[in-house]
Specification:
Pfam families: DUF1405. InterPro entries: CoA-Trfase_III_dom_1_sf (IPR023606), DUF1405 (IPR009845). With 211 residues, the protein is mainly α. It is built from eleven helices and two strands. Helix 9 packs antiparallel against helix 10.
Length: 211
């Protein structure tokens, strides 16, 4: 089923262009959202601060990686080249897209009343949740052609932990209508662990493909 959906959505130049175009749009929106506050964050921490934007950028990089296969008429689920570098990219992109696709369901609903009562609730509640769930949908296509390794999974987990530290211990969390506490920090860590676990169960191992 996953392979069939991936081939339908990514397997022709036209369909892949549509997915890439929408991914670029989400990247532009995320950049617009974080840009006004990024100046208060040290530049080396930007990738962990603007986490959802970085997740979309990583997802876009995965899509760019399959363009040559699609352009020459190959089957994206069979003919996409595999390597250790691509396995790391695909794994981290998958984990971050799932993690930050699910995260708004927790973070916004912890202050549900404030968000739905806000003048721009259609954008800052329904719009955010809707678009972020599309992150998850995009990520779930990657195991149809991607691979993972123990090192890639460990890297993704390490980045998830680092994100929690930067957001909730150092204090550079995404803009919210309330001050987050230990509850959101714990939930974010749990989502990160769950995303890595899902990646581990979803991707085939690169080592198996090399035998």
């Amino acid at each position: 089923m996953r392979a069939a959906i991936a081939e339908e959505l990514l397997g022709t130049p036209r369909s892949l262009a549509v997915v890439c175009g929408f991914t670029a749009f989400m990247l532009a929106v995320g950049t617009w959202y974080y840009a006004p506050t990024a100046g208060s964050v040290p530049v080396p921490l930007w990738p962990l601060y603007a986490d959802s934007t970085v997740a979309v950028a990583l997802g876009g990089a995965v899509l760019v990686g399959i363009i040559p296969t699609v352009r020459r008429g190959g089957d994206v689920t069979v003919d996409t080249p595999i390597s250790r570098a691509s396995a790391y990219l695909q794994t981290v992109a998958f984990v971050w897209l799932v993690q930050f696709g699910v995260w708004p369901l927790v973070s916004l609903n912890l202050a549900f009343g404030q968000y739905v009562a806000a003048p721009d609730a259609w954008l800052y509640y329904w719009g955010v949740i809707g678009t972020h769930l599309l992150f998850v949908g995009l990520a779930l296509l990657f195991p149809a052609f991607g691979r993972t390794t123990p090192g890639a999974l460990a890297t993704a987990l390490g980045l998830g932990v680092a994100n929690v530290v930067v957001d909730y211990w150092v204090g550079f969390h995404p803009p919210l209508l309330y001050e987050p506490g230990a509850g959101l920090a714990g939930a974010t860590l749990a989502i990160a662990v769950g995303s890595v676990t899902l990646a581990s169960h979803s991707f085939r191992r690169l080592e198996d493909s090399e035998r």
